[in-house]
Amino acid sequence: MNIACRERSGQGSLEIGSSSALTTAVCKMNKKYLQPSAYLRKARFTIAKLLLLLKVPLKVRTHVDDMVITFVTTSYTEHVLRARESFRREEVTMYWLRSIVSPADVVYDVGANVGPYSLYAGHKIKRANKGHQVAGVYAFEPAFSNFFPLCRNIETNELNDVVVPFPLAFGKERHETEFFLRSTTTGSALHGVSRPSSEGKEFDPKFRQGIGVTSLNEFVENRGVRFPNHIKIDVDGSELDIIHGANRVLADPRLKSIMIEINANLSKGRIEKFITEHGFKEEMIEEWEGKNTFNKLYIRSDDRSHA
């Protein structure tokens, strides 16, 4: 069953309905600031913002399900959006991690940022495989300002035996190019490969670095690399090149699911068509308000088993 989740606003309602129109549920969320806890939360964030402006690193322990995931944050963006909000903001991504990804699987996190979803998957895999740890998560992040925090978070959570970080970008084929950073703030996103453009919009880059780009087809052929059972792709505009460079990976039945962010203006249906032509079926959709961008979960049609 395909499920569509749409967040209408930060203070409004969350609608969850099946594409078959068999079920529709509307869950009303409490208005912001109606509860005293909301004021305490705002006060904590204000204090955190002041400390981070003073260059004081803050350790954040986020409780997710029955896990505690620790971040060392050095910016307000990293502190709020990545460490505290990641696990609430992307409901379809969390459904994928909770229900589709198995502790025995291998996960590729393409566009890992500072690692919230890699850390969740890493904790899930490590907890289920005590005494026999192998790399189960490959976290790919080319931006220098995010790669070090990613590594630090992996180390802080004692997950380096499970989560392996790579300062690497993916595309249609192997080449070297420039990577344009919209911001060098830790936790920032919306950067551009080869030109200062993200999700079809030009920007004034704050930093330009060199990066190596390879294809997923080529990467999985490297000696010692484990083949992915699940791939998350969130790269703010390069998704089409990445999947075109992964045609053999998508055709391999070992790949069970793809969790991908798609900008409809850029894709024009091409990404979705390419994925479904390789044997996947759209399972869930989540829309980012006002961006015409969607998180889409695809499951291989002949593999409907959940974790």
Helix content: 25-40%
Average of the residue pLDDT scores: 88
**Subunit organisation of the chains:** single chain
Largest sheet: 10 strands, mixed
Question: Number of helix segments?
Answer: 11
In sequence order, what are the helices and strands, one letter per element?
EEEHEEHHHEHEHEEEEEEEHEHHEHHEE
CATH architecture of the largest domain: 3-Layer(aba) Sandwich
CATH-assigned homologous superfamily of the largest domain: Vaccinia Virus protein VP39
Written account of the structure:
The chain folds into two domains: 1-34, no CATH class; 35-300, Rossmann fold (3-Layer(aba) Sandwich), CATH 3.40.50. The radius of gyration is 19 Å and the shape is globular. The strands form four sheets. The chain has a ten-stranded mixed β-sheet, with helices on both faces. A four-stranded mixed β-sheet has the order 9-14-10-11. It contains eleven helices and 18 strands. A hairpin with a 5-residue loop joins strand 1 (3-7) and strand 2. The two termini are 17 Å apart. Mean pLDDT is 88; it is low at 1-33. The protein is of the alpha/beta class. The chain has helices spanning 36-53, 76-84, 86-89, 91-100, 116-128, 144-156, 216-219, 239-244, 247-251, 264-267, 270-277, and strands spanning 3-7, 13-18, 24-28, 58-64, 67-73, 107-110, 137-140, 163-166, 169-170, 175-181, 192-193, 197-198, 201-202, 207-214, 230-233, 257-263, 280-288, 293-300.
